[in-house]
Amino acid sequence: MTTGLLLIQLLNGIQLGILLFLVAAGLTLVFGVMDFINLAHGVQYMLGAYLAAFFAAATGSFWGALALSLPAALLFGLVLEWLVFRHLYARDHLQQVLATFGVILVLNEGVKALFGAAPLQVPGPDLLAGGVVLMPGLLYPTYRIAIIAAGLGVGLLLWWLTGHTLAGMRLRAGASNAAMVAALGVDIRKLFMVVFGLGAMLAGFAGVMAAPILSVEPGMGDNLLVLAFVVIVIGGTGSVSGAFVAALIVGIVETLGKSLAPELMRLFLDASAARQTGAALASMLVYIAMAAVLALRPAGLFPVRSS
After folding, report:
1. Which whole-number Å values give the CA distances from 85 to 74, 98, 297, in the listed order?
2. Which residues make Cβ contacts (< 8 Å) with residue 262, sequence separation at least 6?
3. How far is Cα 217 from Cα 201, in angstroms, rounded to an integer?
4. Residue 24: which of 155, 156, 165 has the closest Cα?
5. Which pTM was predicted?
6. Is the CB of residue 145 less than 8 Å from the CB of residue 241?
7. Which pLDDT tens digit goes with each residue over 214-257?
8. Quick one: which of 156, 191, 149 has its CA closest to 173?
9. What residues contact 282, with CB distance under 8 A and at least 6 apart?
10. By the 8 A CB rule, do 212 and 62 touch?
11. Domains of the chain by residue range
């Protein structure tokens, strides 16, 4: 693999990691603060992408779609919380898993009924068209760099919100001991709603940003949700900083693994066998990394301390 291709794959891995962070940050807060397993969180990523497609067609502008999709994703998340999820908080994890899996099926079929099963395309913003020269003769799409920059900006904003504001203090306290926070007079139901709405908007934002570079289709959030849970396990439940570091690790391992594993296997196997074996190995690398982290730090890299 050439240096240029390696650099491109590394940036692709960081970009995937940023999208994973936007999904996993809300998911880890929901699980850490509310002890609620929400398998439907990936559907909110999908809904963000569909909202972007709908509003882009309606306004003719990516920026208009972005401005309208974020509050719409927030509102949709709050409606789901009010209609479905708040009735599951006191249930055990198995019932939460079954109920939220049902939400996945309903919403996937819903978008099929509204938009059809065919993939949709969202045009990217003209302002971010073209590429950035990484080295002579090598361009990297400007929009993908913008995704990385936007994710870093959101990460810094979340770091400030969770670490330097009263609301963030309550979120961290809730992740540590929700029962104690409720006993101290904090409206835990309102806290849960805020956390859920924030998580839904972050997942929707990830979907909006991914829409111009991926096909918008039913079920597009399912695979990303699996990786988001891996991020949570590696980073530590309830930890936003852990989610950020773990998301970058997972994104880079996932992307570089798919590129390097077949090349590595060619040292030992013929081209056809190397391609198949390398693809199989690449799909396992993220889970091998998760197992290694759990063996050394069972609570994750940056666990939230509980009292």
Report:
1. 15, 12, 31
2. 274, 275, 277, 278, 279, 282
3. 19
4. 155
5. 0.88
6. no
7. 889 998 888 888 898 899 989 887 778 888 999 999 999 888 88
8. 191
9. 254, 257, 258, 261, 262
10. yes
11. 11-219
